[in-house]
């Protein structure tokens, strides 16, 4: 199976190991992975800020970059969720509507791809530690991926999974929301940090790097020792 890796901006610029772990997980299960160098931002920051014209230019470049891909897989529910919005954004455009539909149809978040496409529920990893999982808003509400991360985590050997209180609450990041509404965002992530501490977990795991960056920043500020990691790090540990 041929898969094209969509690394996302945060992985490309800040969390390079997330892209590496995603690549290695795909290769572990027999995927032939390529990396289209023409890829760019999915367009979400500009789109959410009201810059539709500028956002569409990024989106068109993404469609062109992955036009020959069989599958497109990325380590971010938020970014892949944006790809799924392309058909609506280009609806009625005679040139781009069908390419947008084709692109969205072949795009998957990594846990979604492993479980729903490859049929993998146990990646064969081992991880010692007490772990709690944060289900990010965009991944669950926009992309609709809810069960797949937990299915995979529950099959990791030796891991101790604990429930996160009020897990469905937003961490306050929301991309540009955290910039435009910084005071509200700060209170939201403060509450999320409190709930993480209540679990007694050593690790907070999630599948969206923006959320993890936000929560990790708050917890560092509070002097807490919880390690915040992307789910691929757990799944790619032997």
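^ Assign residues to that structure.
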């Amino acid at each position: 199976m041929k898969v094209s890796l969509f690394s996302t901006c945060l992985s490309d610029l800040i969390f390079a190991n997330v892209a590496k772990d995603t690549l290695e997980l795909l290769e572990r299960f027999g995927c032939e992975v390529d990396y289209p160098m023409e890829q760019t931002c999915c367009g979400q920051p500009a789109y959410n800020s009201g810059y539709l014209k500028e956002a569409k230019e990024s989106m068109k470049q993404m469609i062109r970059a992955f036009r020959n891909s069989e599958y497109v897989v990325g380590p971010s529910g938020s970014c892949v969720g944006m790809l799924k919005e392309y058909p609506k954004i280009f609806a009625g455009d005679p040139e781009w509507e069908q390419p947008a539909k084709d692109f969205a149809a072949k795009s998957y978040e990594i846990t979604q791809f492993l479980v729903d496409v490859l049929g993998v529920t146990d990646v064969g990893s081992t991880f010692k530690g007490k772990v709690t999982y944060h289900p990010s808003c965009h991944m669950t509400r926009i992309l609709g991926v809810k069960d797949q991360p937990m299915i995979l985590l529950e099959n990791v050997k030796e891991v101790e999974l604990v429930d996160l209180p009020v897990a469905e609450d937003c961490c306050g990041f929301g991309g540009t929301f955290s910039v435009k509404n910084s005071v509200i965002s700060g209170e939201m992530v403060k509450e999320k940090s409190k709930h993480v501490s209540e679990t007694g977990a050593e690790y907070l795991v999630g599948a969206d790097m923006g959320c993890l960056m936000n929560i990790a920043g708050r917890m560092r500020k509070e002097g807490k020792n919880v390690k915040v990691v992307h789910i691929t790090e757990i799944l790619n540990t032997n």
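The chain has two domains: 2-116, 121-235.
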